[in-house]
Structures are given as C-alpha cells and as structure tokens.
Amino acid sequence: MTNLLVYVVVLFIVAAVFRVDFFFYVLYFLFGVYLLARIWAEQALKRVNCTFQYAERVFPGERTTVHLTLTNTSPLVVPWLRLHESTPVQLRSSAAFEGVLSLRPFERRELSYDLDCRNRGYYVLGPLTVESGDLFGFQRYRHSQETQRVLLVYPHVVPLTRLGLPAQSPFGSIPVKDRLYEDPTRLIGVREYVPGDSMRRIHWRTSAATGKLQVKRFEPAISIEGQIILDLRRDDYALARFYSASELGIVAAASFAAHLIEARQSAGLACNALDAMTGEEDVFILAPGRGQRHLMQMLDLLARVKLTTNGPSFSETLRRASLGLSWGATAIVILPDVTEELFGVFLWMKQRGLHLTVIVTDPHQAFSSFQARAAQVGIHAHLVWQERDLDAWREAQET
Questions:
Q1: How far apart are CA 152 and CA 150, in angstroms?
Q2: What are the backbone dihedrals phi and psi of residue 309, each rounded to the nearest 5 degrees, phi first?
C-alpha cells in the first residue's frame, strides 16, 4: 500500500511538470482501481455469514466435529478469504484450524474440523478470525466473531456396582405401613375390586382368569432424597494429589447422580467450587430432582467446576446443603479427608435424621480408623484412592 502511494505521488508530479495527458489517465485509472477494490473488499466481507454446528456436550474420550458454514449473501465475488479458529490446547487433535478459499456470488461453503475431548472441563471456542482483501493487495480487512461458543466435556460416569459401593442401601425406597405412598413399578399381587378403585389399576388378565375384577397391589414406599455434597476447596487437598483426588471426587459425584436418576430417585448436588462459566466462587446447590433433564443439569455443573481457593469451607457447605433436606434423606458426602470438625458436622447431620454415606479420596491418616469410628454412629464410609482403580472398574464393565 505504501509503495502504491509513493508511485501515485511520483506519477502526479511527473504529470504536473511535463503536462502529459497519458500520465493523468494512468493516475485516474489507478485511483479508480484503488477506490473500487477497497469498497469491493470491505462490502464483500461484511456480507459473509459464518454459522457453527457441533455437539455442545460430550463425554471424555469422544470426538466432536465442528461444522463451519460460510455463506456469501452478496452478488460480489470474494477474491480470497483466510480463516483462523482459536481452539483450546486441550482439545486440539492437530494445529489450530486455518483455511484459505474464495467465494462466488451467493455461494455457500462448508468446512469442518475435529476436537478431541480428552479431559473434563468448560471450554470456550473461538474467536473465528476472517481476513479478506482485494486481488491487488491494496487493502486488507479483518473481522472476528464475538459470539462466545462453549463446549462442555462431562466427567466419566462409572456404574456403582463396579465401584464396590452400595447400589441400594442406604439410599433407595423405604418400605412403610402407610399405603398413601405406593411404588407403581413394584407389583406385589392382586386383590378383589372394591368400589372406588381406579379402573387403571385393574389387572385384566387375572380378572379374565378368575371371572371377577382384580386390582393390582403395589409395594408401599416413599422416595428418598439423595443430596451429593462434594468438597472442591483447594486447601483441603494434599499438594501431591490435589488434581487426581479432586477429579476422582467429581467422577464419584457424577456416578452417584446417574445411579440415583436411573433408579428413579431424587438426586441433588452441592459443592464449594469455582464456576468456570461465571468466575464465581461459592457454594452451588441444585435441589434434589428427577429425570434426565435434571441429571444433565448436574453433569453441566460438574463439567464447569474447578478447585476454589477463596470459596466457603466444607463445613459451611455441609450445613448449607443439608438444611433444605427432609428427615430420612441421604447425604452422599465426597471429600479428600475427614477432620474432627467435619466429623462433628456429620454427627449434627445424623441428629437431623439424615443418612450419611462418606466417600474419601485423599485421606491423610489411616482410613480404617475413621471407617470403624463412622460405623459406630451409623455412617457408611468408603475409600476411592487411585485413578487406575476406576480404569479397572471400566475394563470389568466392558468384559
């Protein structure tokens, strides 16, 4: 561009001194080409639309493909277009995505690249930088997509039967004598129809065999709330194992959540953590709920959270998370180690009528002593220690 201006100035001086019309014609031509190329390149780039399509939520080990669609919505040709997409280092299967192409009037082009989702986390994709210009190199224009695009990689979900943890007790359904609450999935027999019974409960096959209307009898039960409480305060973990132990805790929390939801029980989640999406450090609480949508909300939170350095203590987290639980609910506590202060909070939770299951991922003292002490007050304690143990459980599941 600088060389062109120098050339134009020199040509103008020569034309003015010698008064040669040909030089003026060349000068007008160059100025017209420059002005047309600048307007063309600027307007053409403004009319190029970029859209993305990809799976926004995946599990570790999966690969997601980002589909990029470029559409030229103007009648002008885009001579050249250079693309550069910034992606997190943890997701790259190769170098950052780049490409150079041209677009005809109203042409649509589709490009794609893969992301390897190896580790749990909250990832921001982009921005996509689009650069264009004219054929003569007079002017270049650059545009960046400001829209934030997010990719969530969920934690691993391991079946509890492979964890060596209780799959039914202490959480599940508690049989009761009061028949106001019945589990429609647990048929225990039939009885004769009495006026007032719902027609939906009639067992037609048995009624046809006996010649009398028979009504289904279900096992009486009440559903138990399960609140998963996870400690993600950095100071509570040992320096040598803070990453592996905290990730083990997140995997255990995700596994419990999936197990409870699949068992048609209520499950909630609470943790003191740093939310990578908002940058907030606090106690995040999802009240117990049911269904796959609620499970996705819990997995979303577990994908975003990180260890916190300034967040609330875990004793405060336990108190805040358990205050909303009803009598008979189960608190599934996942933490690196149990201190005397935390053990006192456990006793307070037991006095409130809560069942406790404690998962320890990084004990600083003999775990067997705490396990025996916890058993004396009716607390179930389990140890999850090494990442390779989870790998062994996954291999056992596959075989």
A1: 7
A2: -105, -25
Q: Which residues pair with 188 in a beta bridge?
A: none
With the CA atoms of 170, 171, 173 and 176 taken in that order, what torsion angle do they form, in degrees rounded to the nearest 10?
40
d(CA 234, CA 215): 57
231 - beta bridge partners? 272
Instruction: Return the C-alpha torsion angle 290, 295, 298, 302, nearest 10.
Output: 150
Please identify which residue in the block is written with the tokens 């030229």.
72
| C-alpha to C-alpha distances, 329 to 128, 227, 266, nearest whole angstrom | 48, 8, 10
Q: Respond yes or no on whether the N-terminal peptide bond of residue 170 is cis (omega within 30° of 0).
A: yes
Judged on CB neighbours under 10 Å (0-12, 13-18, 19+), 279 is exposed
Q: How many CA atoms are closer than 13 Å to the CA of 284, on its beta-carbon side?
A: 26
Where is 226: in which H helix or E strand?
A: strand 225-231
Buried b (16+ CB within 10 A) or exposed e, 194-209: eeeeeeebbbeeebee
Q: Which residue has 């550069």 as its token pair?
A: 84
Beta partners for residue 334, in sequence order: 230, 359
Residue pLDDT, tens place only, 25-79? 766 666 666 766 677 777 777 888 888 999 999 999 898 999 999 999 888 888 8
- Counts of helices then strands in the chain (DSSP H, E): 10, 20
Q: Is the peptide bond before 127 cis (omega within 30 degrees of 0)?
A: yes
Tell which phi-psi region holds residue 396, choosing left (phi > 0), alpha (psi between -120 and 50) or beta. alpha
Tell me how long the chain is: 399
* Distance from C-alpha of 335 to C-alpha of 361, rounded to nearest angstrom: 6
| Rounded-to-integer distance, Cα 281 and Cα 275, Å | 6
Q: What is the per-residue pLDDT across 232-280, written as a single tens digit (0 to 9) for each?
A: 999 999 988 899 899 999 999 998 899 888 888 889 999 999 999 999 9
Written as one letter, the residue type at 309 is T
257-273 burial by CB neighbour count: b if 16+ within 10 A, else e?
bbbbbebebbbbbbbbb
